[in-house]
Amino acid sequence: MSKLQKILAGIVAICVLFFGFVVVRLGAAPNDNSVKLKEISHENYAHLGKEAYKDAYPLEYKSFMKNNMGGESPTGYGGSDPGKSYIEMQPEIKENFKGYKFSVQYDVARGHTWAGVDQINSQRIGPQKGNCIVCKSSWMYDKWYKESGWDFASKPFAEATPPYTNKDTVEGTDLYFGCSSCHDPDTMELRVYQQGFVESMAMKGIDISKASHNEMRGYVCGQCHNEYYFMKEDGRVRHPFIGGYEPEEQFQWYQSGAAGGFTEDWIHPDSKTPMLKAQHPDFEIWTTSVHADAGVTCVDCHMPYMREDGQKYTSHWMTSPLKTAEESCLKCHDESKETLIARVKTIHDNNFKLQRVAGQTVAKAHLAVKAAMDAGATDNQLAGARLKLREAQWYWDWVAAENGNGFHNPDKCMRVSGEAIDLAHQVIEEANALVKGSL
Questions:
Q1: DSSP 156
Q2: Where are the domains of the chain?
Q3: Long-range own/partner contacts, residues 188-191 (CB < 8 A, 24 or more apart)
Q4: Per-residue pLDDT tens digits for 356-374
Q5: Residue 30 predicted with pLDDT over 50
Q6: Which of 13-17, 76-80, 428-432 has the lowest mean pLDDT?
Q7: SS3 assignment for 285-298
Q8: pLDDT tens digits for 409-429?
Q9: Of 136, 153, 131, whose CA–CA distance to 49 is shortest?
Q10: Helix or strand holding residue 230 (H, E)
Q11: Is 6 helix (H, G, I), strand (E, B) or coil?
Q12: Which residue ranges does UniProt annotate as crossing the membrane (predicted)?
């Protein structure tokens, strides 16, 4: 055999070994025991908690418990440190939510694992009912709803809350937010258990049971991360996105009487305006975003695929994507991590500045209406200004209450903050004109 023939034979042998290895790897079962279905104990409702899944799904469980950690996001916004108060960071909140629970305590939300601790110890509980626990635990569906439908929604908070052994620890509130909040505990398939979301989507003509897997990757988060209200008739959860995903459409939903007996959350003591409180409309803001248009869901960014010891798993550390930028962002974005973080920070900076201006202008509008009242303006004269004030605060709050600080849909959030500023200025002008006696 010539030298050339030996070289060619060697190359052929290497190729055979290499491609043979590839074929074997492709044909072999994935080295990922963590995703095989395991039986979870139902004793004492353990399947509705977190601890029961520890040994069955160790990688997912370990990453989920990272939600216990605090710390700010890489851009300096958000984060999950205990006791970090929006009221201290944005003093205008005191005036805008005057007379309502959110002027007493409004802290930055901690990780999902703290849901039980933070709700049970909240200064806002007061006269709350079982409906306010709907998104804090699937206990409200797997226990109460399956037994008696929406009856739990009108139960006092203390009667409806899931059992706990220690109200100050994650371990002691195990039956609050856990694996069953997003997965069927028997099949581990993604599920939407929050029946208010299911019913509201049905009213939009969307059957959740027919959703694709990728749609479910948005719905499992969207079932709780959205704007909602409690129906006055029976306390059940309902969502104004039935009328549309835009804040203007949702405001009209409330104005039209479509919300039934629910008309306002409280009457502002200064301006005597019937107010609406927005609740984290993350789903609505994302739904019309460029990411949603591209089929990118909450899970893709906040729960990326990770690897540990050769095993691939879905991270359950639902945190800022910038903390896992390589897996969350750079799989799609062809730029450096530093450039990407800088771009997101610019969006956060601009959104927060405009949001603050909106909130401060709304606060001035409340005081302007109060001054007009003190000067003798009648309810009839102030009706138009109050309606605009109600709408202005709704738009400001719709952006301020959202968890992405504008990033989930920058153009929409900037537009809505601008609308809040414009309406609030109109209120101030009208109220000042009444004080001067020109109307």
A1: B
A2: 297-331
A3: 188/37, 190/216, 190/217, 190/219, 190/220, 191/216, 191/220
A4: 999 999 999 999 999 999 9
A5: no
A6: 13-17
A7: HHHCCHHHHCCCCH
A8: 999 999 999 999 999 999 999
A9: 136
A10: strand 229-230
A11: helix
A12: 7-28
